[in-house]
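Input structure tokens:
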């Protein structure tokens, strides 16, 4: 199907023709590309918070709870290198309910993260198994994530498509503006892939053994929302002067 070149495109051709510092004519074109992909990872964030009047006791309980989670993840055959401690702190705990703040003890907190390859059935089973554990000081959330491998593969494809788009537009504009392109002077593009439309994390508080009823977490209809990713390249052509 033939493409119809509108008057607005010819105006664009004129507006993108400029002069460089050495008075050479150039044509600047922005090529665009977009792609829809599905995130391939689910990132779990585990938050621990332990309060106690004794600082050492708070730290010990936090360590025990954190080690319990790590042992649990290792028992499920997850790689130790994928389990990351992303935060850790110990601070004084104060009660501000009254006019005069009162120190009540200490609070020890930590955060552990692990990214798991998405599989709806396995992720649901993981959440179900996790819910059966007796973690007293932990809550967690999970969110979609795109692996570095998928980011790089998608980025390479986007840049290639954006360059092809810019070349096509430049040739089309040159033809209808009656100019001749001498060669590419420069190519600029973003060094990152952007605009990930990912779902917000969902927070889940696992049940404790203190509860009389176990909460069933089996949700085998899990799915990941698609993400639309954009890329732009700017290409500048030198224009041959017509005799």
């Amino acid at each position: 199907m033939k493409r119809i070149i509108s008057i607005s495109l010819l105006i664009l051709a004129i507006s993108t023709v400029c002069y460089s510092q050495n008075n050479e004519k150039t044509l600047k074109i922005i090529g665009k590309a977009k792609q829809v992909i599905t995130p391939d990872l689910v990132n779990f964030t585990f938050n621990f918070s332990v309060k106690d009047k004794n600082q050492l006791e708070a730290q010990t309980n936090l360590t025990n709870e954190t080690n319990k989670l790590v042992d649990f993840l290792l028992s499920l055959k997850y790689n130790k290198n994928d389990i990351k401690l992303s935060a850790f702190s110990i601070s004084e705990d104060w009660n501000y309910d009254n006019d005069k703040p009162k120190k009540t003890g200490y609070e020890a907190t930590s955060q552990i993260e692990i990214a798991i390859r998405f599989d709806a059935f396995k992720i649901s089973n993981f959440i179900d198994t996790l819910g059966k554990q007796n973690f007293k000081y932990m809550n967690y959330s999970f969110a979609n994530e795109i692996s570095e491998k998928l980011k790089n593969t998608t980025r390479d494809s986007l840049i290639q498509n954006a360059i092809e788009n810019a070349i096509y537009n430049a040739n089309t504009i040159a033809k209808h503006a009656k100019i001749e392109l001498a060669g590419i002077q420069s190519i600029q593009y973003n060094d990152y892939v952007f605009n990930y439309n990912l779902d917000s994390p969902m927070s889940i508080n696992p049940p404790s053994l203190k509860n009389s009823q176990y909460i069933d977490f089996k949700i085998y209809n899990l799915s990941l929302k698609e993400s639309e990713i954009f890329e732009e390249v700017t290409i500048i052509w030198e224009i041959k002067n017509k005799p």
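The helical segments are 7-16, 55-75, 120-131, 148-177. Confidence is low (pLDDT under 50) at residues 1-15, 193-217.
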